[in-house]
Amino acid sequence: GSAAPAFAQQSAKAAVGAVRIGSNECWTGPLPAGAEAAMLIVKDGNRYEPSDQHAELFKAVSKVEGVPVERILAWPGSSDPLARVPVTFASPKRGIVTADPTYESIWRTGAWIGAKVTKVPLTSDYRHDVKAMVAADPNAGLFYVCSPNNPTGTITPVEDLEWLAQNKPKDAILLIDEAYIHWSDTPRAVRLAVERDDVIVMRTFSKLFGMAGMRLGLTFASPALHEKMMRYDGGQVTNMLPMTAVACGAASVPLAAQIKQRADEMIAARDYAIAHLEKRGVKVIPGSKANMFMAEWKGKTPKEMMALFLANGVQIGRGWTAYPQMSRITVGSMEEMQKFCLAYDKIAMA
Ligand code: PLP
């Protein structure tokens, strides 16, 4: 048959019982209050919307992020808008400009719709090279920036994003993917999606909120852009959401102290693992502000390292063609990162 999609290649089955730090999932489940809200609403699952769940989610998000309710839309994760935005704003005549390496989903959608996809290397300090991105395709309909970037975890400063918004072709759209923003203490791009009508900021509950399998995401954008994104399902897009996810998200978003505690614990686990590798002479891409980092192996490919780690009970992430000697490592719990470090030492000594 045809090749399995990328996400299916790294089979979940192969990793059962292993430390799973390969897919940028959160090591722990939803925040307890969110899980409770989801369980409570199951009994009302016969209704498309038992009461006012969407409005409650949007109100909660609006309060935390300072985005007016009319500029917020919810999705089953961010994969749907990440495909829908290029389908809406790019075409064989209007290209897509992204970084390299970055999250490749948009490359595949771009190829499928016949849009020219231009991949611009990150700067030497692993930011998106916004000047080179603007210069890369004067006909671009869409610029995609992932900050913190997957797989490097590095930030592109909001000033650079603002410059990109101001200097791209006027009718092009800037899509900013903030899937990993909750581990970062730098200013967010949300303001751009409030002040401008040509910027979309995208969030997901799959990462810090621990809801990857429950499916919830958000876009912040002008009502006009959202309307264009919904053209092919007649404006009924929010009907695709399970109420369990909507209720869980609405209950989780306001929990600032728990969100920060979860982020801080994972940052400590990340920095522990990075320090361990660096002590062993392994180069790690500096500046990660996310639940992932990239490590450079000497004399082994990412594929070989993945197999070696799995043989030691740890499922690490894959490589990216731009950096052929590196693997992406997701940050798990402190205990899991200790197991990862032990596994590395075993592999290095073998
Ligand atoms: N954007 C980025 C940068 C990601 O890393 C991912 C998943 O890994 C996604 C979007 C899509 O995830 P989801 O559909 O679960 O929100």
UniProtKB/TrEMBL annotation:
PROSITE patterns: TAT. InterPro entries: Aminotransferase_I/II_large, HistidinolP_aminotransfase, PyrdxlP-dep_Trfase, PyrdxlP-dep_Trfase_major, PyrdxlP-dep_Trfase_small, TAT_signal. Pathway: Amino-acid biosynthesis. Residues 20-341 form the Aminotransferase class I/classII large domain. Pfam families: Aminotran_1_2 (PF00155). Keywords: Aminotransferase, Pyridoxal phosphate, Transferase. Gene3D superfamilies: Aspartate Aminotransferase, domain 1, Type I PLP-dependent aspartate aminotransferase-like (Major domain). GO terms for molecular function: transaminase activity. Belongs to the class-II pyridoxal-phosphate-dependent aminotransferase family. Histidinol-phosphate aminotransferase subfamily. This is Pyridoxal phosphate-dependent aminotransferase. The lineage of its organism: Bacteria, Pseudomonadati, Pseudomonadota, Alphaproteobacteria, Sphingomonadales.
